[in-house]
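Quarterly update, task 2.4: adenine-bound model.
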Amino acid sequence: MRFDIITLFPQIFAGYLTQSLLAKAIDRGLVEIHIHDLREWSTDTKHHKIDDKPYGGGPGMLICVDPVVHCVEAVQQMSEKPGVVVMMTPQGDRLDQRRVEEIARFERMILLCGRYEGFDQRVIDILAPLELSVGDYVLNGGEVASMVVVDSTVRMIPGVLGDEQSSWDDSFSRGNRMLEFPQYTRPAEFRGHTVPDVLLSGDHKRIANWRAEQSLNKTKLRRNDLFDKEGDA
Ligand code: ADE
């Protein structure tokens, strides 16, 4: 899977791209990530300006249409696979696990990260991007949101996760939107807090039942809305 990320802050991605799971997936050729600096497509050769004041007035600055359209067109040409253009914006469709599974089927995505007050509307009219939000709050820009998209979709690519982690994901995310049951590791007792006896019993059936019950209760208590979503895939 190939990601092209268009940003005004390319240096933000350096640490993230070299962290273990993603770095391994890149090393093994399962994932390709290319970062593009939008300023390189600025028509202002002196200051590499890419933003301007909104017509009609109002606070803040908007990212201009011309550098974005030129940049996306140039980036599309960098691979034979056509990329789905995705704009990170709080106005977009909310990303959830179902949407992650859907977009993980794309062979290539071109992620547009906004800053300031957003993009000139003509970027949307011309490029018709898939607009995605990572939640109902406003980030300083689309960079962190685009990392959420990359991070959540690469987990869906066969071979990226070890067997153990991927079967975990299978049973606890795809189709099954229950919250996780509580987990414990050593020591068996800490400051009087002990591990539930059932987990020390060695009885796999009882353990599985206990975990299912814990998941169900936690989901009912915290996220009853997840039950409504079930089955409407
Ligand atoms: N850019 C700023 N806030 C965002 C959000 N919540 N989701 C996606 N992109 C954003």
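Highlight for this quarter: The beta strands are 2-7, 32-37, 51-52, 62-63, 84-94, 108-113, 130-133, 189-190, 193-194.
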